[in-house]
Design a protein that fits this description.
Order of helices and strands: HEEEHEHEHEHEHEH
Strand order of the largest sheet: 5-4-1-6-7-8
Number of strands: 8
Number of helices: 7
Helix content: 25-40%
CATH class: Alpha Beta
Structural class: alpha/beta
Strand content: 15-25%
Largest sheet: 6 strands, parallel
Number of domains: 1
Shape: globular
Oligomer: single chain
Distance between the termini: 28 Å
CATH architecture: 3-Layer(aba) Sandwich
CATH topology: Rossmann fold
CATH superfamily: HAD superfamily/HAD-like
């Protein structure tokens, strides 16, 4: 698994169940809310700071996700993608990468098509069993509870990049 992580240049993530705990909250007007983990955010900011390409590919469309992606300097945000593999292929081609240079973290059945293609398939520890069965990296943390951070730290460590306290000044994680 460490050899796979050494090759990673692009990290792609599902949103619900990975960057969040999978809960969807609505107010009385039908406005949807999501909760994100700041530790995950710090990990993603560190990846961007060290030149990694980061992407969110999600089936849902939500302004909160757009706001979060902007705050974390996410390179690519793709919402409304019920079938995610074509988007992942577009990113692969856009950045002239092989699948061995891509990691993907997902938690449910729609993510399996991407997980089966990438060099480092990843999931939170509360992913469904079918997803866990195709992943090399299974976080010790749940989705929205530090799984993304654990993956970021693992890849940085495998690539020999020192842990540092960097956060862009004024950055909201």
């Amino acid at each position: 698994m460490k050899d796979r992580a050494k090759k990673i240049k692009l990290l792609a993530f599902d949103c619900d169940g990975v960057l969040t705990d999978g809960s969807v909250t609505y107010d009385e007007n039908g406005v949807e809310y999501k909760t994100f983990n700041v530790k995950d955010g710090h990990g993603l900011i560190r990846m961007a700071k060290h030149g990694f390409i980061t992407a969110i590919i999600t089936a849902r469309c939500n302004g909160t996700v757009e706001h979060r992606a902007k705050n974390l300097n996410i390179t690519e945000l793709h919402q409304g993608k019920k079938y995610k593999l074509p988007t992942l292929e577009e990113l692969r081609q856009k950045y002239n990468l092989s699948y061995d240079e891509i990691s993907y973290m997902g938690d449910d059945l729609p993510d399996i098509c991407c997980l089966e293609k990438v060099g480092l398939a990843c999931c939170p520890n509360d992913a469904v069993d079918e997803v866990k069965n195709v992943c090399q990296f299974i976080s010790t943390k749940a989705g929205g509870r530090g799984a993304v951070r654990e993956l970021c730290d693992f890849i940085l460590d495998c690539q020999g990049i020192e842990k540092d306290p960097i956060v862009a000044e004024g950055q909201n994680v």
